[in-house]
């Protein structure tokens, strides 16, 4: 498949007179896709049942006539005011018990039946009207599920639905009580209708309660999305996507993705560096105008898995954004670099958000390809350059990477319910592991925690898998790959209990986690040799070969044939040692990278990226700041 | 007019037997004014309609007999409990949606009609009784509007009044929708009654929505105050004041001031240094017992403008206060220095808060001129010294300063709604500019953003004016002065949109802000030469002469004849360079000041102030710690 | 009395089949006590009136048959869900006005009459059944009053009860108004029913209001506990205890203790170091696996006073806990050290919490003596060693210490209502003083603020006593001991007013605090000689002998015969100087301790403890890390 570019456009924001010129400029710039419609409910249906499709018909027509393919978004992320007036209790409720008011976006609770019905209605109407429109070449459901912390709702609607979900899962209150260990503090329930949502408790709620609420909340998103996907699929042959966000882990993207053809995500490297990467100040300064060298790549690899190979960047940062604590401009060249990093990871399309900077409302400080006065913004030239480059480039050639890294949303929830040490998170652990793999010059496939995904890899890293189902344990043990598990591997049963035989409870492996501890981040435990454990350490007993140990001789990584149990959260140097060790055993060649330089291999090319604001000399040549080298393989 | 001193007194706090002795001691100390009454509603009207004026009659009599002039405060900042019982919904509601309970002060919402009526009633009764009392020589409305964050209320009353205000302003919901750009996220309203207050939205509300709520909230204060002023003015010839606070910018003080004869403010240099100046720790340590060298002066100059020349310090810190995070004692001499700094800026009166330290209730740790045991507190001697000095000093001789600095409350709200970078504020920007002017030894007039105020200045600094009305643009361009605009000058239309032709959109000036960025505070962008841009930078294109530029050659200040556009937030060194450059062009002589030393010129004298805890030698002589030199001009 | 060990056990968490084996292992390990029942209400009474005592009968039987003595807890800290369904308004309400939901523990308001009645009923039933059971050798009321910030409740029930309490105390609203100084801001009340709880006020509430609410809240706990104690005492001869927490000062433990035979507390040295000691990062790192060298000792001495000599550690940390920000494992030997430190301070019993780590619910990460798989956890060997050692050791021989330190809960509330400087707390001040005494090698008796407790001491330290009743003043002045008062001694009347004659208002002592100031923690005021005042300083005038003064000559400690007034909060070096000075005058020998080493004397032995992770050589011999030396006296 040919690589393509696109942009996000809001015809409803602009006089109809400029649509044609806009469309022509998009086409001229080499763009293929134009996403529209996802916030337009208010103009489609300004009052209940008063439908205004005409303008949207014309907008799609104008864009299509210019040769552009339309991605049509369902508008359910922004219900108009009248929908809220009709269903006042559709608003989500935050963890403090406060309804989240109308006046921005995503102001709905996934569990509200009335709002679900409104969505079914408007999506059906939209799919009926545009399902066979020749210019509508793809769909997007809703917009950025989970953005602005919108998955967990503590509303009455959510409470009722949670009780139903529990009843379905446990069948009897006693089964729930046993599963959760409610005997602990006389927390037994006599009825599912006694179960409340786990917020505002006097001290922490039962972790099983909290984890089930996380699982329920994720399932509500899956169902909400599935309804839309089914309606559209019955009426259109165009593929359906959703645009996920960076580091939103509050729902299971794999399960949502199972109902869609394409995964896509919204990539804002500079905003993310400031507000969610977790970098320290020195790193934030160094990469302020380039973004983190691994964060985007991680999500590219993650969403390639979510899309089962088909994935896009639906929104690509083109300049300063408006929403981060600080909003600098990108270094010249970075918009091109970010685009090529996406293509190197197999993206089918990269769409710049947004076409023209809006002069009004919440995102008026968000750059676009055009300035508010319609002149080209700096990103436009870089987009044109990429368009020219992909026209010459070989087609997308995905290749299985030698190394797999498992990402498990359920594990993320379990860690968030019980981090054990302040600041510890599953996402953070997996990202640290991913960084080490990238520093070693390795291309990585992120895979879901599914036995069927393991084939063909030489090494499989699976840090932090709190609960491992039996079939997954069997598959990991049966794999030919070098497999790394831990810390906290199999630490919990499905119901969030410690397994009777102690973790990791792997059949045939003589290994027990007998005690765990978390430590201050300023108290690293040095490894014998180099590197350290920081923050978290499983105390293990077993008969395997010690691969890493503390200076005091406590085992930190222990090998049982192809399986290595990692007992601690390693610092960067420690992870580098582990990756080197495992890659060596797996027969995978590593290429240690200079700081800020990264590579990625496709079936046909090796890509080199320089995230530094200074030039770097590498074996493939001279990399200027923001430089990209494409090296045939 | 002769300079005067005064104090704040609460006869209701003390046995009537001590009033006479207190009055005599005030007079003996050289005080002229005594402010009373502003918290006494509960003793004036302990139950609905049960009026007890007798004690207040006697108190005023005793004070007047001693030769003191009374400033009588309306008691509306502390409605008694029964008022709240009668109007339970009169309580303001905070941004979290919680009613702010009875039990301290300022427990009312400016928009509550019932409470407005109670105020009208009690103020009328008070003005009827004391409007012609010979001892009542001035009035104060309410007390410290905005203190304790009391301007923005999210109550039902505020919501209703906001809807009325919007209907008045926009006339139709569609006009509002267009003005705000509500199409952006399907936020259109079909009726004004659909508009909610902009708190607790899922993500940020529309900035136009937020800004209009700020403007509405300010207007409510103006109306509230106006009602009282009109009642008093119809019944008394004495001038009316309000006592504003330091760094409270939530309402437009100029508009409130238009209904009053005198502006006054409550100056707490040590408390403010700790809780609102924004100083770093080193500065807080250095000036812990002296206060910031510029913060009081800034407010003196600001409130001189608010009072159209007539202004007081209504409350002057006389010793440790009770309410800051840390409450040290002033360096000996500082109470005198603070008093003289006020007089140097044209104050008619300085009143020490309070006469005697209260042994009970919220401010029992707040020093007065007397200790709780009625002995003189340390400030008393300094007050006596000032009284003796002003008796010998020339009368207040205001003189127009060579340099004006514009302060615009509306700009402050726009920045607060959309700072773009964490920690950026309009007040902070203007204060930084003011500091640089003071470091250059310049006396400054702060002026309101009004074309009529510009005459007679050699230089006019107007940083950060987010919206500039057309007539103001014309006046600035027509001025003979050196005018400095930016950053963010004219960045928004009245409705908080980006202007079509891009900012600053100045007729006849070929200059555009094509992109803006905010940066981490630890990422200064060095200027070529010396100094740096920190935090905020407009990217500009224009044909003017570059006055300052970054090391990389990006213009930071650009000159078009007498107009200089400043594109970035400068650090202290950068501002010093700009001030030096502009003063040079304007023909204004500068006198670079040693750290912590400041001067201020009146028509007759140059004042030197030493805010350091160590002596400094200056051209006018030796300044001891807390030293003041008065040098004839 | 012989020293004993015990553990905390939850038969309801485990299959009945393992009870017997568990009991045998407890006995074999040398344990005497087993505490049970305190969270078991849900299994005792799963539905209203449906009582299931049989399992508890059998559990007590099995334990008793094994030779163990049972401590039976009343289950009122964990009312089952049906109790909350019956009394929905029994939930406490937090300071933000939010009900604190069911789902963990301590979900009740002490003031709720309906819940009080439920407690009376279940405790009566339990005492009826087990009051004469031969195996029930002690009782525990409820569990950890005040844990999770559960003393202050802002519920309707609390509001009503507070009004009753005020009516009882003041008899008339006018008396209350006068006592509180409500005239200050027109805060007078016409009826007790006008008084609200002091949360969510616009600015701080009246400190008298806030202090009375603290006193009321404490009294509610005393009454709640008293009811249970009286029920049990009428039905059982076994002593009654409550298990207090570390640094919970929201109620008066002395008054609760007056209704009980034994004080006990729950000692978690590593958790407390992280979450409540107030240590800086360097100290947290150094003692991360050992705990603070003074914090446990302080509580041991405090609760010895609360228990009038009889006290236990009811819960002793045996390994990593689950609830602190970071949860490291103890250094080997520390469980033994902690146990011996308790015995050195006179503990009758030390019970390890808990027997077996629970695999489920909130504390599944909390270590026990057994691992979840029932194997011995590391603490088990240390417990066995202690059991062996106490078998050989002399009996508990309490001895009055030469030095007393007064701890006054009422003073703690007054400081918390009015710290005057950020971060200042009474508890912190007293602990700093205690640390200095320990650094000087002194054994200390903590005593309640009661004239009858003063006899027999050579030195009495009473820092920070905000209010001192007249009889206490007289007793302190009459004491033969060296007495240290201040800072803030007698700073307030009972009603939280400044005394007319200024503090400390001591009959016959010519000393006045004329002004007070608080200072930034980074602004120490150096003492002449060595050490500094930090954070707080009384300015004093008096005719005593200056013992300490600032470099500038301001007196910081002033002596009047045997009385020394301390005017400032001293740093460690300053406190060391003061302790040395006072001990010298009192004729008490000091033994300056190396860092992390502490001693404690009983009637028969001197104990040496090494809290360092490295060995230290002392006069008594070589102390390894976690080392204990018992030296006969
Ligand atoms: Zn219509
Ligand atoms: Zn009356
Ligand atoms: Zn039953």
UniProtKB/TrEMBL annotation, chains A, B, C:
The keyword Hydrolase applies. It is an enzyme of class 3 (hydrolase). Keywords: Glycosidase, Hydrolase, Metal-binding, Zinc. It catalyses: Hydrolysis of terminal non-reducing beta-D-galactose residues in beta-D-galactosides. The keyword Metal-binding applies. Residues 8-392 form the Glycoside hydrolase family 42 N-terminal domain. Transmembrane segments: none annotated. This is Beta-galactosidase. It comes from Salibaculum griseiflavum. The lineage of its organism: Bacteria, Pseudomonadati, Pseudomonadota, Alphaproteobacteria, Rhodobacterales.
